[in-house]
Design goal:
Elements (H helix, E strand, L loop, with lengths): L2 E4 L4 H12 L4 E5 L2 H7 L5 E4 L5 H8 L4 E4 L11 H20 L3 E5 L17 H13 L5 E6 L1 E3 L7 E4 L8 E3 H11 L8 E7 L8 H6 L3
Parallel strand pairs: 1-2, 1-4, 2-3, 4-5, 5-6, 6-10, 7-9
Antiparallel strand pairs: 8-10
Helix pairs in contact: 1-6, 3-4, 4-5
Length: 219
């Protein structure tokens, strides 16, 4: 297994790269700025320069990877096309490249509430709308996929158990980015994670379950 990580220098992406490296899984990390990436990513990660909006760079960057973890996301800005370009077009380009390369598993990180048009987050240039469009493109692609919809992302860790639920069943809650990274990497190893959308948060009062139980518990 060799895993290609898009969005590798983002807050969630860098934790995904670290989780893979900690498990001794070979990583190719897609970055736009090598110097920035070297400063924040583990030395063991192989860094490749490219951009999800540049299809030619993607084909070269993916190389011999066997799985893709996509943690890209538009940054808040005054550019109204940002979420469309990054969250939809970028993911679409990545899916097309994955199909051409025969990628075995595609894991996409989106967000809770992508199905809710009137959610406050859509005031940020319809970001959830474009994440939802990206999800649908992945689902229809023919690739083996797992779509991970985390709740509010936290940079700080906590010991709370992960709650994993089916599509459009969780509407609030928070989760540390480190746990999102664990969910994404575990999805590659759990047969019951294949071709599913899972919603994840962390709750103090939730029962402790192992990854197999969590993924198998989602219909």
């Amino acid at each position: 297994m060799k895993v290609f990580v898009a969005g590798a220098t983002g807050e969630t992406g860098r934790r995904i790269v670290k989780e893979l490296v900690d498990r001794n899984i070979p990583v190719r990390a897609l970055v736009r700025d090598l110097d920035k990436a070297r400063a924040i990513l583990p030395e063991a990660a192989e860094l490749v320069v490219g951009d999800v909006l540049n299809t030619d760079s993607l084909n070269t960057a993916i190389a011999d990877s066997t799985a893709i973890l996509c943690a890209t996301g538009a940054s808040p800005s005054f550019d109204p096309t940002g979420p469309y370009k990054v969250d939809y077009e970028g993911t679409k380009n990545l899916v097309d490249a994955a199909k051409a390369k025969g990628i075995e598993h595609f894991v996409l990180v989106t967000s809770l509430c992508t199905s809710q048009l009137f959610h406050p987050l859509n005031l940020f240039w319809l970001i959830l709308v474009w994440k939802k469009q990206a999800e649908e493109y992945v689902e229809k692609s023919g690739l083996t996929y797992t779509i991970v919809r985390p709740g509010g992302l936290q940079n700080d860790e906590n010991p709370y158990p992960v709650v994993m639920s089916a599509v459009d069943t969780l509407f609030d809650g928070r989760i540390p980015r480190t746990k999102v990274a664990q969910v994404c990497v575990e999805a590659l190893f759990q047969p019951s994670a294949r071709n599913k959308i899972v919603e994840v948060i962390a709750k103090a009062e939730a029962p402790q379950k192992n990854w197999q139980e969590l993924f198998a518990g989602v219909a």
